[in-house]
Amino acid sequence: MASSSTSSHPLLHTSRDYSNVTEIPYCSVPPTYNEFLRKYLEPNIPVLIGPALTASWKARQEWVDHATGKPDFGKLRSQLCGDRPVQVPVADCQCKDFTDQKRSTMDLKEFLDEWEAQSKDGVSSRMYLKDFHFVKTFPNYTAYVTPEIFRDDWMNEFWTKRIDMDDDYRFVYCGGDGTFTPFHADVYRSYSWSANICGVKKWTLFPPDQEHLFHDSLRNSVYDIENVDAKAFPLFQVAKRFTIYQQPGETLFVPSGWWHQVQNIGDTISINHNWCNGSNLDLILESILTDLDQVEQEIEHLQESMEEGEWIETCQRLLLLNSGWDWSTIWQMCSTIKNRVRRQLEHRDKIMELSPSYEPTTYFVEDGVEKRKTIPVYLPPLVSQQPALELTLERLDAILNFIRKDKSARYFLTKVKGYTLDE
Ligand SMILES: O=C(O)CCC(=O)C(=O)O
Ligand SMILES: [Fe+2]
Question: Residue of the nearest CA to atom 1 in ligand 1?
Fold first, then answer.
């Protein structure tokens, strides 16, 4: 059985109440950072933001044929496809593969050629270019600058600072009419934001408190909300939901744990990030503990034949494989962010001069020791986020202390990873 429980966790917000949400708010004027923090991030409520937020992006100016509103296939090809092939991930929207669509890779030029031909013929598309790590693939292109309200982003800050791997959560999606993303909640219960460059995206969003209505007895979830087996999911139709049509230039903030399905209408291109920070850290932790619980239950039959240390290590290995995190990932992420926040608090006066590129080099913390990395990294939070820094530090300390006190986490980090967990 699970050794950890979230019930007494100091980070858990007392409540997030979705019962009063009757529609998805629309901000034609983008909110200030503090407004966004208070109205949407902390209460975990979606918001659709008007096109002013993305108006200056190169992606909006150059990737779209402004006469037709369709993708500018010629420019996309000439700017992104050189002599070398660029392999991109694609999903086959007509082929279900467990809980997702069947994935493969394709050369970007080939994808664009096929897409353009289908678009000209007016036929609906099947292949959906998704989870394409655009910034990692084209680091000098600068298709967009992450808006300030989304800049307190620990996942992308940490993953780009990591020296043990090269990964991030910054994506481009391209798909023709009829392509879609099946029903899901985002990885680790992270937030996402999704900015639409062209086309229309139909989003159907379900608050986290409806989740019990779309799982069956074996914990399988609905795959496609347009085709639900009423026998397996008898209560699905009563689940509260919100539908929005996201127009070109608009950006949707998708909060933690909100389930959603996305349908593309016309040829669409969008940019999205998965992210987390002090406002949803408790939900991220809860998701890790739930995943760990599940791993422990799945291999419960092996527990008796193992020493305690071997059991803890095995569960962490499986957790990392299944969910992409283990205790050391979250420990290192929080330590890395904590050091950056501390530095910002120490140099408050300088932040004004140094923003937005406050940290020209980057620091990644491993076992309490900072290691430098010199590649350009994710932009750190800006001046207007400074009032939230003290609270952020408090929340980071709370989670680090929680991990220090958790028996299995402590064993894994000190004995297996060799960390010291100093305060
Ligand atoms: O645009 C899509 O197809 C899916 C995007 C999504 O699921 C997200 O941004 O969380
Ligand atoms: Fe999503």
Answer: 262
Structural contact between residues 109 and 77, judged by C-beta atoms closer than 8 angstroms: yes
Ligand 1, CB cutoff 6 Å, lining residues: 173, 181, 186, 192, 194, 201, 254, 260, 262, 270, 272
Give the pLDDT confidence of 225-240 residue by residue, as tens digits.
999 999 999 999 999 9
Q: What is the reported pTM?
A: 0.93
Are 225 and 196 in contact by the 8 Å Cβ rule? The answer is: no
Ligand 1 atom closest to Cα of residue 194: 9
Ion ligand 2: residues, Cβ under 5 Å: 186
pLDDT above 70 (res 5): no
Domains of the chain plus CATH, in order, are 26-275 (2.60.120.650), 281-416 (no CATH)
Q: What is the CA radius of gyration of the chain?
A: 22
Q: Where are the beta strands (DSSP E) in 332-393?
A: 362-366, 369-373
* Ligand 1, atom nearest to 272 Cα: 9
Q: How far is the CA of 46 from the centre of ligand 2 (A)?
A: 13
What separation in Å is there between the alpha carbon of 412 and the centre of ligand 1?
34
Give me the amino acid identity at 132: F
Q: Looking at ligand 1, which atom is closest to the CA of residue 270?
A: 1
What long-range pairs does 289-293 form, CB within 8 A, spacing at least 24? Answer: 289/2, 289/4, 289/5, 289/6, 291/319, 291/322, 291/323, 291/325, 292/2, 292/4, 292/319, 293/2, 293/4
pLDDT in tens, 95-152: 999 999 999 999 999 999 999 999 999 998 999 999 999 999 998 899 999 998 998 8
Angle between helices 327-346 and 389-405 (to 10 degrees): 150
Question: Whole-angstrom Cα distance, residue 315 to residue 300?
Answer: 10
Residue 378 makes CB contacts below 8 A (sequence gap 6+) with: 146, 153, 156, 157, 160, 161, 168
> Residues near 320 by Cβ (< 8 Å), separated by ≥ 6?
326, 329
Residue 37 CB-half CA count within 13 A = 19
